[in-house]
What we know:
Layout: E1 9-14, H1 20-29, E2 38-44, E3 49-55, H2 58-61, H3 64-68, E4 74-80, E5 95-99, E6 102-109, H4 115-121, H5 134-144, H6 150-160, E7 166-170, E8 175-179, E9 188-192, E10 201-205, H7 209-213, E11 217-221, E12 227-231, E13 234-238, E14 254-255, H8 256-262, E15 268-269, E16 272-273, H9 274-288, E17 295-298, H10 304-314, E18 322-324, H11 337-340, H12 343-347, E19 348-350, H13 352-355, E20 359-364, H14 372-382, E21 387-392, H15 428-435, E22 439-442, H16 445-452, E23 458-459, H17 461-464
Parallel strand pairs: 14-23, 17-20, 20-21, 21-22
Antiparallel strand pairs: 1-4, 1-10, 2-3, 2-4, 5-6, 6-7, 7-8, 8-12, 9-10, 9-11, 12-13, 15-16, 18-19
Helix pairs in contact: 4-5, 9-10, 9-16
Amino acid sequence: MDGLSEKCGVFGVYAPEEDVARLTFFGIYSLQHRGQESAGIAASDGRQIRIEAGMGLVSQAFDEQRLGALPGIAAIGHTRYSTTGSTLACNTQPLLVNGVHGEYALAHNGNVVNAKELKSSLGLEDHFFETTTDSEVLARILSDGPGRDLNDRFAYMMTKANGAYSLAVLTNDALYAVRDPLGIRPLCIGKLPSRDNGGGGWVVSSESCALDHLGATVIRDVSPGEVVKIDAGGISSFFPLGQNSGRTDKDEKLCLFEFIYFARPDSVLSGSLLHEVRRRMGVRLAQEHPAEADIVIGVPDSATPAAIGYAEESGIPYVEALVKNRYVGRTFIKPDQRLRERDVELKLNPLKHVLEGKRVLVVDDSIVRGTTTPRVIRMLREAGAKEIHMRISAPPITHPCPYGTDMATRGELIAAQNFQPDGRTVDVDAIENHVGADSLRYISLEGASWATRRGAGHCAGCFTGKYPSEGIPLQLDKFELETDDETGSMPSILPLIRS
Ligand code: AMP
């Protein structure tokens, strides 16, 4: 189910004969699951980039009037969940920067770990920066960084920036799609069909589900370390660090948690439909951890495919027993203390007649802080379940994510707090006790990777503590770029970036 927070979604379109702002609106609308804090669109009419952004859901941030203010030949859009920088209006994306090399709009998914050092190495004064995000450091490299041309600055970015960045970049006359050399976050390219009166064009998106909704054909993923340029001359591509630059498929480090939880089940990630991957995770979970039960249920929506897979493999019938209020999402109305403790009850309602007297096998995709699971279990018991066997289609999450998943600090992760005395394996029985299940078991890391059917490698840092890049601080501070070095205090309100 949905509990903590998700990562950003990026989208871009180059289609001079289409309503690019409207296409982008619907593009980011289908990436809403990747961020609900703010939404924004930047469009270029060939001479000037205009930007509109607002707090909340895409549908809260935009109306016809705002879309109408964004004429253009190309546009980029963003749905934001903060991984660096707080929920300030100034931190909405796309960012628009105007520097010595011209005007750039940028939408970023991921997190650059060494943004602070990168910022000082650019030699730009602090007051130059208008936001508190790592994304602006990337944008400033493009607008003010070293090098003869934009290709040089992309190369500089790829050499210096450590971490995850899938980017959509807009200039006056071109759209760029960029993926970091490890390919930690997804990004794909699609083609819009031509119509009788012309039209057509190119789209780029964090996930392929956005392309399906727009009737675009998925062409391929942007490769790790690739810069794709789309303009009036068509589509071209280059690898600033050299094609493959010594890399093999095994060096690719696409986040395993995208496969488990983040991306939508109808998205295709590096050739695999995620619904299938998650179903296979359920199959594997049933093989690794069988149980005696009368029914299999999933915690909606994210665990449904894995629950279907578990039922298929175990022969225990899959039934729907938890109904989700699909309209619970981001709200500006804060619940009072009594309701805050009932957040799971505000989202889910159990079907008592299905659960009464049953031994229930419950599949969820992950346990992060361990707040949701005991509440789900209590709810199922109150609805009459006789036994509750919890199965999790992610391995125990023992480490935070430095690459753009707001997964809590190490101290907040329940698996990190429950290691065996050897300090190497997680004490699953202790967590079982904490959540109040009759049994609790997790899929193995090997099982989860097997289900992706990928020859290429993954980042599995949140399950292992082994990150694919150097120098990752264990406790990550998402407000790092905000604190005043001398006083440690937050800066005063920052200006809104709007053209
Ligand atoms: P927790 O209560 O912290 O253990 O959260 C676990 C629940 O949140 C699971 O049901 C997951 O489906 C969901 N979840 C896992 N990771 C995230 C995340 N980074 N953002 C939002 N929800 C998450």
